[in-house]
Write a structure and sequence with these properties.
By secondary structure, this protein is mainly α. It contains twelve helices and four strands, in the order H-H-H-H-H-H-H-H-H-H-H-E-E-E-E-H.
Length: 325
Amino acid sequence: MVTQVELSPLAPTCPILLAAVALDAFIGDPIYPLHPARLMGGVLSLCERLLRRARLDGYGGGCLLLVLLACTWVLAPSVLVMKIHASCPWIAWLVHLFVVYSLIALRDLFRHGWNVERALRRHDLRDARRAVAMLVGRDTEPMDAGACRRAMIESLAENTVDGFISPLFWYALFGLPGLLLFKIVSTMDSMVGYKTARYMRFGWCGARTDDLMNWLPARLTWLLMTLAAAILPGTSAPKAFRVGWRQHALVPGPNAGWSEAATAGGIQRRLVGPLWRDGALVTTLWLGDPRDPEAGSAEDFLTACRFILVVSALWVTATAVFLAS
């Protein structure tokens, strides 16, 4: 029988998936000027400037931006890998592996979290706030140690979806082109998907497409978190399921609340709390079971890290089984 691997060098494979995850786990995200994500951002900025000069700065311009980026970062790399495969298949597989490895970022998420935790253990609140500011859009000056840890737990929960679960989801379904398209859309959302006068219309396509591509992975993550809480000691599967279902809509956006609320329920700690932006108090919302204590201790952060690791391991296992079947 001819396998999918033999048919196309762009197809998802279990060995490449597992190798890419292992590289990310042991080495982490490679940091260098020609990183694919950096190059995507550079091409996006160039295309934005050209479109604005042509006065295509509305909804149409934003949609055209997606088309231009797809041609640059889906079509062109796919054709390149196919051509390399025609003359030297093993180099094509190495390129395939390197791209997958470069576009997942689980270890990098934990690295940011540990930067905050290490600063707090040194009692350096200023450095902890600076580390938190790299991942969240809220004011960090009013934050105490507990608020810093809560912010990192929330960031871990949310970014596990768009930084790890979703990329592997789209890779498993559509191979290298699916992964590249997802990362293009994610980059658009992070660079132009703002609700400001400048980007309200121009960034609409990227933001809404990002919502669409994360829709199912976010809800699968909620279910995975329920399963992880049934496995990990000290966590609660019923609360992960119940809080995720009942409170996901309390978080802005259609997707982020599923993983954040499920994490709050799973680790049995309340998240969010008082939050400031641009000097104004914007919410006093607490996410989680009202009877649970608020998160904020070092042990709470460690429990959240273990929880996310179990969720990620379950997702890798499920994806590998899907690809191997």
